[in-house]
Amino acid sequence: MTIPRQMKLGAFIMGVGHHIAAWLHPSVEPHDLVSLDHYVRIAQAAEAARFDALFFADNVAAPPLSPLSAQAAPVYYLEPLMLLGALVPATQRIGLVATVSATYLPPYHLARKFATLDHISGGRAGWNCVTSGSDAEARNFGLDAQIGHAERYERAAEYIHVVKALWDSWDDEALLFDQSGRRFFDPAKVRAIDHDGRHFRVRGPLQAGRPIQGHPVIAQAGSSADGIALAAATAELVFTAQQSLDEAVAFADTVRERAVAAGRGREDVVVMPGLMPFVAETQEDAQRLHDDLQALVDPGIAIGLASAMIGADLGQYPLDGPVPDLPPTEGWQSRQKLFFDLARAEGLTIRELAVRVAVARGHRVVIGTATQIADEMEAWFQAGAADGFNIMPPTLPHGLHDFARLVVPELQRRGLFRTEYEGNTLRANLGLARPAGRMS
User: Fold this and answer.
1) Any known ligand binding at 180?
2) How far apart are CA 157 and CA 152, in angstroms?
3) Which CATH fold topology does 8-282+362-430 show?
4) Does residue 35 have a known ligand-binding role?
5) I need a labelling partner for 392 at 20 to 30 A (CA). Which of 182, 267, 271, 275 fits?
């Protein structure tokens, strides 16, 4: 019997909530930002709701230090890979996806860390590959400014090639554990990779055996031309941000078509736009939660966030004037374009754009009852705009609990989301094939 296509859901976890003012809301305990118990409870709640994966974003620079910035909770406070390792024994089936930049960590380190996470989790690891896009990050690694956008993505493509080669440097059958024959592994099934490229020289092999999933699932979150090219060639999960159904369909079709051109199948790429749901039993209560959080936003912090994501200081322009025409930066080009397109389409001032950015940083926001939010998700899913969604709770833990309590049962009632996990690995639950080893 053919199983109907179903949505995939990621629980995108960010501190005490994705809204910039989440930590100020009376339902939130600010100390949870640094509490392992907080993340354990969230992970277990997401697993109980049968989410495919937990997803943690990251960057490698603290925000600018000032009296104003001290009013905002640091969203990338804990290192995500170590945090996911701590969540392994608290969970059994949910995937564990961490963002690690391909710009500054040597590829051997990354390959080893994710192989380890895959082994200790029983095959639940996923790597969200990003390229660091800020000068602040560059200065933490001995550079005066970030590497150019095109070069970052060129390096990332080679980086992913090296990482995959390291994961494949052990055959699946290499580990023998043969006590009587005194052979822990078969040396004929372990090989150096001897990579000598433009950006990296890595001999290998990896210290650990081949990951349980063959390769941990690779995700990518860039939507620029360079980002789409990298995602189409290498990514299995694509995290993205679109504001309209038409834009989302066009993006998803482009990624899938480019994947086919790269010799892959359309089904090899799972497209998951970010979605911030404000959900309650009534439309009025959902709107009130949104409005209460917006009332806590400091305009200066909102301007600072929008400026950081656009790559230009918007505070030097009249805040109630139009968003200026600015050239592309070497930073997050796709998000810059999204914000400019949004401002032009709706005639937003700088202040209005900044307040919009403060909610979900360019991801789509939906406000309403479980039925209304499920309707929106179903429309995108059926139109081919999304294979699922990366759910961004505005506050944590309550935003995740409300979505799991209200929206997930409605999706299940419609046959759009699982009631039980299909397998024990992240690949199995996402419906992704396990890659064959290169050395076999």
Assistant:
1) no
2) 9
3) TIM Barrel (3.20.20)
4) no
5) 267
